[in-house]
Design goal:
By secondary structure, the chain is an alpha/beta fold. It has one domain: Alpha-Beta Barrel (TIM Barrel). Helices cover 48% and strands 15% of the residues. The chain has an 8-stranded parallel beta barrel, surrounded by 9 helices. Helix 5 packs parallel to helix 7 and helix 10 packs antiparallel against helix 12. The radius of gyration is 18 Å and the shape is globular. The N and C termini lie close together (11 Å).
Length: 293
């Protein structure tokens, strides 16, 4: 199956009350594991790249693998750039073949956020590429880790960064953005305490937002809260930490139990990929995206 428009994916999710799973993938093992699991569950899926993995020729490797994955998948696949912070980063991946980008200017003022998003939207929409922005701010769960740390943003408590409903319609109308990541109590990375999502706030935002709504920080958030978020308007959930924990935990166990450090990687990664896929499949069920392709 060829690449599918992210905007169409999200609009379908909004109409049928499910969330498209988006997984940050950083190598062949994570990409293949995610797509194979999505195929098994008959779920649309988004493969997302992060800036550190796309440096230099890293972008060429990533887009080549992602396109092969999409072409060989039996389900809709989109290729997404997660948490770009500049127009140039977005332009680079759009020109390379990504069909979805996120421009994250949430640490800036409302006016600056609008200006940065509009610049990306103008370029992307001329090329049929979907754009996601962020209003409010999803911080890191642990200071010094995650997206905020990558961007050099001061660590904040999630409750201090919630999206303000009064700004939502104005932001979407001024930017013409397709998808909006909102802050309703989640954080990036591993939580030190269980988050509590502001579902009433989500309901208020969903009632007024023309753009499809996105939830960042899908790892570690209780399943019941995720289901409530999806039932009340979230159309895409981002996941990374949970698949890394599953894969690396199994990899660590396997390597520690083996005396052969010359073992072929394809065999070393067998159990870690299965562990990753179990997480992927569980997320797909939680997001209600199984059998939605």
């Amino acid at each position: 199956m060829s690449l599918i428009s992210t905007k169409e994916m999200l609009q379908d999710a909004r109409a049928r009350q499910y969330a498209v799973p988006m997984f940050d993938v950083c190598n062949y093992e994570t990409m293949r594991g995610v797509v194979d699991a999505a195929n098994e569950m008959n779920s649309p899926v988004m493969l997302a790249g992060l800036k550190p993995d796309l440096k230099g020729v890293g972008l060429d490797y990533f887009i080549a693998m992602a396109k092969v994955a999409a072409q060989n998948a039996n389900v809709p696949v989109a290729i997404h750039l997660d948490h770009a912070t500049s127009f140039d980063e977005c332009k680079r991946v759009i020109d390379a073949g990504f069909n979805s980008v996120m421009i994250d200017a949430s640490s800036h003022s409302f006016t600056e956020n609008v200006a940065k998003v509009k610049e990306v939207v103008n370029y992307a929409h001329q090329r049929g590429v979907t754009v996601e922005a962020e209003l409010g701010h999803v911080p890191d769960a642990i200071a010094g880790t995650g997206e905020a740390a990558q961007q050099g943003i001061e660590h904040k408590n999630p409750k201090e960064c919630l999206t303000q409903p009064t700004e939502v319609l104005k932001f979407v109308e001024q930017t013409n953005v397709d998808a909006l990541a909102i802050a309703i109590g989640t954080a990036h990375g591993s939580y030190v305490s269980t988050p509590k999502l502001e579902i009433e706030l989500l309901k208020e935002i969903n009632a007024i937002s023309p753009a499809c709504l996105v939830l960042h920080g899908g790892s570690g958030t209780p399943e019941g809260q995720i289901k409530a978020a999806v039932a009340n308007g979230i159309t895409k959930v981002n996941v990374f930490t949970d698949i890394l924990i599953a894969m690396f935990s199994e990899l660590k166990t396997g390597l520690n139990e083996s005396d052969n450090m010359g073992k072929w990687p394809i065999f070393v990664y067998e159990k870690p990929i299965l562990a990753l896929q179990e997480v992927v499949k569980n997320k797909i069920i939680t997001f209600n995206s199984q059998n939605k392709s």
